[in-house]
Each structure stands twice: as structure tokens, then as C-alpha cells.
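Sharing in case it's useful to others searching the archive later.

Someone asked me privately for the predicted structure of TetR family transcriptional regulator, so I'm posting the question and my answer publicly. Question first, with the sequence:
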Amino acid sequence: MTQTTRDGRGAGRRGSTPMPTRDALLTVAERLFLADGYDKVSVRAICAAADANTAAVHYHFGTKDDLTIALLQSRLGPLWADPLASLDPAVTPIAQVVDVVVSPFVDLQADPTGHLHLRLLARFVFAHPTASWTSHWFDLDPFADMLAEAVPGLTASEARRRWALGFQLILLRFGGTETLSTAAVTALIGFVTAGLTAPAT
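And my answer, the predicted C-alpha cells:
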């Protein structure tokens, strides 16, 4: 098992490259969050588990919330980045966008660790609705821009509200303890798509 040095660098096996403090903090925070839950894990516990200075989280991230945002974006962001970046907003149907968004959730829920990541994501998002995400596809604006272009008369603010509701429903369904059936996923995609693409009022 990889051990960490006093400054938070993972010692690893003899002769291996030490793990940078920032990476060590993310690794141990992930393990603690998945085992004990976000709310029960303190910054002090994360630093202690990483064998780092008690101010390490503040130095590298700012707050526990900022560390969690960095963790979720680093672990989950790559699953969406390429598929979403390949979409052409001018011609891609919103139903296809929703399908691209939901597909990684389906894969994650089939993996025990992935399912825990989903539960952590859902709980964090619902508890921190104004979290400052830095990853492009964790922000509502790119989705709102596509939707506003697809639905005549829909304002950017209304498009954001629709996507916010859509993502809340997706996270609520996938962030639970049950694994969604194929029929349930199909119904979810259809329902979200219908809500997003309803005529502007």
C-alpha cells in the first residue's frame, strides 16, 4: 500500500516517484468520502490521512468544498468531456444531448465504486446548489446555449432553469441506492427531453 511522507507526498514503493501533496489529498479524500460520507469527513482528517500539514487543503484547494469540486471534476469530468465536445450545437437534437449526458451515469451505476461517486456527486450538488464548478461541462451555460438555440423564443435564463431541473432529476434518480433498469433510464431520458424542449412560454 502506498504511504505518504510528512509533507503529503506519497512515498509509494521504494524507488518510485513520490505522490504530489495535491494528488495525495484528492486520493485520501476520495477514499474517506466514499467510506464515511462527505459530511462526516473533516479537513483535519483528510490532512492526517494524507500525512500532510493541517493547512494543506487550504493551500492547495481553499476549502473542503473546493477540494470536493476538484475531486468530482477530475474523476467524472473526463467521462463527459469528449462526447459533449464533439456535439455540434447547431444540428444536434436535444434528445441526443440528453442521451450523451445520461450514458456515463448508466455505466457508473453498474460499477460499485462508480455508484458511490454518483451518490457523492448527487449529495454534494443538492447540498451546494451554488458551488463554483470550474470544469466547462459542470456549468449550465454550455447546455443552456444549446437549448436556447434549439427552442424558438426560449431565453438563456429559462434554458438554464430547465437544465437545472433536468440535472436535478437525473442526479436524484441515479444518486439513489437502486440501480435503474433499462426501461427506467429510457423513461427518464424521454421525460427530461420533453421538459427541456417544451415550447417557450
